[in-house]
Amino acid sequence: MESGGNGLPRDLDRAYEPRPNNCGVGVIKGVPTDLDQQDIFSALLQRAPVKSVRRLGASENVRIVFATESAPEHVILGYTRYRVYKYIESPRQCSKCQRFGHVAGTCRLQARCSRCGGNHERSSCGTEEPQCPNCKKKHESTSPRCRVLRKEKEIHNYKKNNNVGYSSAKAVVCKQRNASSRHSGEKTPVNNTSASEKAFETTPRIDDTDEFPSLPPRPTAQTSILTTTAAAAPINVPTVGVQQSTAGPSTRPRSSYPWSGPRERSTRQGNETTFSLLSALVDAARSFLAPMSSPVAKAILTLLDLILPILEKWR
């Protein structure tokens, strides 16, 4: 079977390239769930050139397609004024092969496990440590930490903000990433990493001696003798002044060493452990909810995507 540039069958590669249109798309939030879509459409059409509306799952968010090139800043629904937010569609990821740009219903590729990348279903996976089939990192393919997923989101953002097709947006994003890699003096990998992804991957570890060097050694026996001599000598004797100036700096680490270093390192280590546990729980929840198509599951997945950046900042 002939394949396209992204490894997909060529017919799928072409079929998933929507042309940019001249319709503005936006989202309004906080719309009561008891309002029907047809009622929302009829009410909005009285004051705005609306083409279609669609409620996003069971949430209070409603997606609106306008007949104009850009979406307005606000719309009136009944007696309430709603702010129109920019709508950016999330990348479509196949739940069968874990690749992007198509869905499982049209996928002709071999199935891959979302947890380990093996040729089996996720439900039959017995691997303890996950490995993303797309970026080969230690997380599942649906994790927001995946650099391939982040790249797809960056492409979709550029596509929406500049009203271009997927291929054009992908070419610009890849060019920007390559330029960033050359500017930093690094070799360009096959899957380039954005600045935000590099910051995540280069977070210092508590056991990294380059980031956290060893504390200075304890004072030697000779320094202790000088300290004792300086303490025993009268202050008004001129000949002891040299010993006092030599012993002075050596006594400071003894008073601060046992308290500042280990306590700070213990706090950092505790934060690392807590973050690892919370991150593992988020990944486990995502892997459980990813195959589900119910609105509640999608809403929980969206909430988990918002929680993880907060955990990274708290870390």
Automatic annotation (TrEMBL):
Bias type Polar residues, positions: 241-258
Positions with biased composition (Basic and acidic residues): 198-207
Domain of life: Eukaryota
Renumbered residue ranges of the record's region Disordered: 177-214, 240-270
Protein name per Swiss-Prot or TrEMBL: Nucleic-acid-binding protein from mobile element jockey
Lineage of origin: Eukaryota, Metazoa, Ecdysozoa, Arthropoda, Chelicerata
